[in-house]
Fold this sequence. Notes:
- The protein is α+β, with helices and mostly antiparallel strands.
- It is built from 9 helices and 32 strands.
- An 8-stranded mixed sheet has the order 11-10-9-20-21-22-18-17. Strands 12-13-14-15-19-16 form a 6-stranded mixed sheet, covered by helices on one side. It has a 4-stranded antiparallel sheet with strand order 1-2-6-5.
- α7 runs parallel beside α8 (306-321).
Amino acid sequence: MKTKEKKKTSFVLSSVLAISLGVAQPIFAAETPPAVITSTVTENPNSSMKLSWETRDLDVTKAIAQVVKKSDAKKFASKHVKTFTSNDIVFKNNRAYSKVSATQLEEGTEYLYRVGDGTDKGWSDKGQFKTASTDEEKEFSFLYLSDTQYSSASTDGKKTEQMLKNATSQFKDSVDFTYLAGDFTDKANNPDQWDTFFNLSQNLFQDTFMVPVIGNHDSASGLYLDNYFPSPESAKENTANESSYVYSFDYGSAHFASLNTEHSSGEKLEEQVEWLKKDMEASDKKWKIVLFHKSIYPGASHITDSDIIRLRTALSPVLDELNVDAVLSGHDHVYSRGFVNGDGSKENAQPVKPTDLSTVYAPDAPLYYTIVSGGLKFYNPKNYSVTTGDPLIPNYDFLDVKSTNVEDAASADGNKITYSEVTVSDEKITFDTYYTTTKTNDNRHLETFSIVKEKEHETWSPDKVYVAGDRVSHDGRVFEAKWWTKGENPLKSGQWDVWKEIKDENPNEIPEWNASDIYVAGDKAYYNGELYEAKWWTRGDNPSKSGQWDVWKKVK
């Protein structure tokens, strides 16, 4: 006790001395430096980022942030440091919440940032983020979480902390951003829950920028979520009612749109639907991904809640019509996924290889994904009836992967707290999902699941040279060159039949390679799970060895 009293007295004396000597006072006192530091997505994450933090100093008058390229050897001593200021400060709960917009940044670039009052001792620890790339052929990835719903450090907090430790150690240095599908804490207006939530996060949210959506546990009076992960400015313009967290952005080959499912009826929902239609129709990105909290096709007990029925009725036909590829949600505290048509029926996706059901061609229906990333509670499936007009079918038969919460709760390991690394390339989206067990704290791999889009083929040109394997489109059909050719119309195929037409194939009908069968150019066969195509006549040549003359080629 004596030591603590001495330290306090020493602080008071030094403060008085500073004042008596006329030393310029910082914007806030150095003994209360910024904490809970975050970076959050904007409408243009390739060139800007929103930086937020809190301090306990209620006399703060200005928010200041500095940003510098991570590659700059001099870091914050560099002459290239960018300084941003604002007066966007909110006071509540004996805290000051500050926000600054960092703008005119370079795309696809790693930056360090710090926030504070501009004095040497008044800066926060450094954080980092990477701006988005506009290169559509460049792969990127993000961490997908939902319903961390932190409540108490003594119970669920320990379980959630272990999951966050696992996710952070695996992915913090490799993912480009984090997406949390709502319900960050259990009570949004409890500042202590927020403080502990950030303490548990292992700096994950300080070192990757956040893509937030609002959940029902985030929507307490005063919109506390906005203090930590602000709604992008465009949300005020996207709907007449200025609904928060209704926004969109591009990253690489994907277009993302966020909705606010707290508005589940009436004008506010209708406005979001109309905005989504215009937003998606204006995008030419290859992948379209929609983000919101309340899953409309989950695998547990929220399936027939009145607000879910209203959301499903309004959104499902539209998401299907807009050719949305994936809808990433939470809310129902369960892990489930499935392709669902606009009328609620199940869409069966075609596997790329019959022997591998984990990689499928993207069908003409959205993939609905639901995960739970908190240890507070888990929900079970229920028996339900389908009401008239609700785009739903019975028994959760719209899902490919259904809830296992009942079995998990009874097991020695306990329930699964799930999180997923989502990797997006020009041709494929892959969900690599892991889980932490609630009873044993083990970390395990759950599954890897991918959806693939076939490449679009260039239009045939009589002036271009094509070689064996090149594919072109002509007159609404697809052709493949057997060897070198120029100027030979695929429809006529030239004197030597140089072009062959590629027709839709059912992978399940392609046979396994047989050493005794004869194959000619264009014939396909599977061998050890890999698809091969013959270049010319062959018999007995093992596709994996491809024969003396390289007669087989692997089809990717």
